Amino acid sequence: MTAPLAGYVILDLSHVLAGPYCTMTLADLGAKVIKVERPGLGDDTRAFPPFKDGKSAYFAALNHGKSSIALDLKEDADRTIFDELLSRADVLVENFRPGVLERLGYGWEALHAAFPELILAAVSGFGQTGPDAKRPAYDMVVQARGGVMSITGETGREPVRVGASIGDIVAGMFLSQGILAALVDRARGGGGRRVDVSMLDSQLAILEHAIALTTVTGKAPGPSGARHPLIAPFETFHASDGLFVIAAGNDTLFEKLCIALALPLDGDDRFASNPARVQNARLLKRLIEAVTIEHTRAHWIAKLTAAGVPTGAIQTIDQVLKDPQIQARNMVVDVLDRNGRPAFKAAGNPIKMSDVTDPTTRPPAPELDGNRGEILRWLRGG
Amino acid sequence: MTAPLAGYVILDLSHVLAGPYCTMTLADLGAKVIKVERPGLGDDTRAFPPFKDGKSAYFAALNHGKSSIALDLKEDADRTIFDELLSRADVLVENFRPGVLERLGYGWEALHAAFPELILAAVSGFGQTGPDAKRPAYDMVVQARGGVMSITGETGREPVRVGASIGDIVAGMFLSQGILAALVDRARGGGGRRVDVSMLDSQLAILEHAIALTTVTGKAPGPSGARHPLIAPFETFHASDGLFVIAAGNDTLFEKLCIALALPLDGDDRFASNPARVQNARLLKRLIEAVTIEHTRAHWIAKLTAAGVPTGAIQTIDQVLKDPQIQARNMVVDVLDRNGRPAFKAAGNPIKMSDVTDPTTRPPAPELDGNRGEILRWLRGG
């Protein structure tokens, strides 16, 4: 019944999204996360809307269960505390612009010499190396520069941003993987390592088919609206009361779909294989919609599910939060306040593991410097 | 100079995208990945376009450096080989529909009893539990049901799909993290564990601000086109030759932006704070564009970068692949053919680590059953 990272200590200098997302994942896996914030304002996201009782829901969602100490790394007394924390930490996470940590005297060489088992994990806009290493970035900048915006949106219209902040979040996830891989190796004597993840690199790493398409055909794909560019039918369709999706990814599923819709396309060369269906995707969509428009989404989702065809609703966030499958998987948890009462909702832990309890609540996010006394006692207590 | 997972053996029953993406990441971190495919056709994606010299670029991008053996897990002789592989493996990865592995006699209880150190990692559409556990899913289904489509696209128009297959890829990334966390714990005696990741759960886990917004305000956000719903200015703008992005995430950056654009908004209450700017985002966009439309994207990107304001181009995939920063980070690698010549391009490893070489090439993706002899010799050789 132990969480896999119980006992590991993560010292977290990061702020805003990519770094805090990474350390939230590690906290959900059982690590102790100590957030080191700048005195005064702390993490920028403490001031991000929306608020409830004066507290940021955004900050709470990303920082629940962490503890906080405010340190000015230019002050000697605070540096002494930070050094003590480093001597107890397994990992230091940071998302300053490259060069900032070095100027504070905590560059990789200095840290590795003083704490040879410490893992230093940095996430930045463009990475620790390369011509643009020191440029500032936000999610929007890497979604745009990294190409995902160019393949998201409707053909012939302006590109759109992916609604979730995947510029930050995917980078935070790769940072977690790098940290965990370094811990695996350290356990067999590999020592401390430096992990360097860039938000821009991370965008490239999730492009999957788009790189293959571009390099083989010589032509970059554009946006393809609500459909997959390489599979058909694999898009949204109108029912009598709105849109839903059908994803028939191979010939068997397409045959099942045609039977369920009573659509006589058997033997029609235009739809006989996936490449043919992709070529005739617009016509195929019209033929399918001529049938689906006759009944409701619920009717078709039930019917196609019974036929074994992947399908589903396009849910708004309020609907997702009430989805019975999401509920059954404990994927919406309560972040508690100081009095143990539910204060905010947050996403649960998507990594379910045997012999690990999957709690339905999370401890509060910390007040700025709210755990100073407790952290100092822990340091001095041995 | 050792990769962190060198020496670890991953047995990979998975196919298509989420599972193979996970094991590709582990291979890039140094693990030996043995792909166990069904005889005859093997992984579905061997038949996915685009092709070059009869080989799928899609398959190559996800399976480079893995070895392949074709086994029919209903045949005794092949089961014997599979059992031998299990006895040498650290991790078994699978993405069958829940229940399939049990019916083959390789359910978690049986595996854990026979191989107590083995980690079983499963990724599925909806997870191993819950009312919809056995439903089929594809990327499109979980992008729709999980809510990300409802916040992606233009206000007042139909929702669009995220151009990258984040329904699969994000789940594959959480599976990697679960595997690595289980390996960390196993190294200190934690034994084998079962990791259960669902594509739908994983979509919820990346929603970040959308859950906070919905639960605090009681209202689900809709799509917001090319702009962030909680920050302004943080969107696309027209220059004289096309669109580019500006992301001024706080007051200091907004001030720098106004100076660089010579835009006299100082002291204007409508733009004095981020909440005020969000409220007046449409007006603010018009005021900024009245200036940016006068010069090219290159002009503004250079000028704003010099001023320290996060900005950048919206690049198409061909532009991304030639981006000097992406090149400097070794983020586009050559997948070689059998003769050691470059055959395909693929994304590099976004997890850069000290004392680990970051090769500029990848070994070929395997032929179906192409490593049978070598794998059997390895099994029998000790």
UniProtKB/TrEMBL annotation, chains A, B:
Chain segments carrying region Disordered: 347-371
Pfam family, one: CoA_transf_3
Record-level Gene Ontology MF annotations: CoA-transferase activity
UniProt entry keywords in alphabetical sequence: Transferase
Coiled-coil intervals, chain numbering: none
Keyword Transferase: yes
Name used for this protein in its record: CoA:oxalate CoA-transferase
Species of origin: Citreimonas salinaria
